[in-house]
Amino acid sequence: MSSVPSGLFRLVYYSRSQVAPGAFEPTIDSIIRKSIANNRTDGISGMLFCHDGWFLQALEGSHKAISATLARIEADHRHEAVLLLGAAQASGRLFREWDMCARTLSMVDAKVAEAIARRGAFDPGRLSLETATRLLTRLRAVRDDAQLRYVA
Ligand SMILES: Cc1cc2nc3c(=O)[nH]c(=O)nc-3n(C[C@H](O)[C@H](O)[C@H](O)COP(=O)(O)O)c2cc1C
């Protein structure tokens, strides 16, 4: 992936899932496959967290690439009420192209979900950009510990 040290932006949004619980695994799998392919081409790195009917996603890349990707994401009927937590220029990337994705995503997410549940209900609307980014980087670290990688 070509890195863009100057002109690098990070954006975090959350949304409400419209995926039927029974169709969750295959739908997430297909979102992830498409995302990793597109994001690789567009020089975008990021992280997608799914929990309790919410999506929380960070996207990093050039302003142009992120705007185009966000426009496609917003038009996707597999979720609704896409709301930005914020966007800011970033001095470096926190995520990698394959952080989006781990085949056994839900197992590892369950570990993080447990930690979140101990602190009360998960409500991304109450997170600041900084807290949401920290949560996503911690989730990345958990995945690294578990040595999970998506093999595209
Ligand atoms: C929660 C969620 C996250 C998504 N994340 C990305 C993403 O990071 N990159 C991407 O290209 N598409 C993402 N998508 C898929 C887009 O909405 C859209 O289906 C896809 O970009 C269309 O790609 P195509 O025009 O190449 O077929 C996401 C969809 C959902 C529901």
Please provide a written account of the structure.
The chain has helices at residues 24-42, 63-74, 105-118, 129-145, and strands spanning 8-17, 45-51, 54-62, 79-89. By secondary structure, it is an alpha+beta fold. It has a single domain (8-145), classed as 2-Layer Sandwich (Alpha-Beta Plaits). A 4-stranded antiparallel beta sheet has the order 2-3-1-4, sandwiched between helices. A hairpin with a 2-residue loop joins strand 2 and strand 3. The longest helix has 19 residues, at 24-42. The site of flavin mononucleotide has 16 residues, from helix 1, strand 2, strand 3 and helix 2.
Question: Helix and strand layout, with pairings?
Answer:
Layout: E1 8-17, H1 24-42, E2 45-51, E3 54-62, H2 63-74, E4 79-89, H3 105-118, H4 129-145
The structure holds flavin mononucleotide.
Short characterization:
Helix content is 41%, strand content 24%.
Number of domains: 1
Written as H for each helix and E for each strand, in order along the chain, the element string is: EHEEHEHH
CATH topology, by name, is Alpha-Beta Plaits
The CATH class is identified as Alpha Beta
Which key phrases capture this entry?
alpha+beta, 152 residues, binds flavin mononucleotide, four-stranded antiparallel β-sheet, Alpha-Beta Plaits, 24% strand, 4 helices, single chain
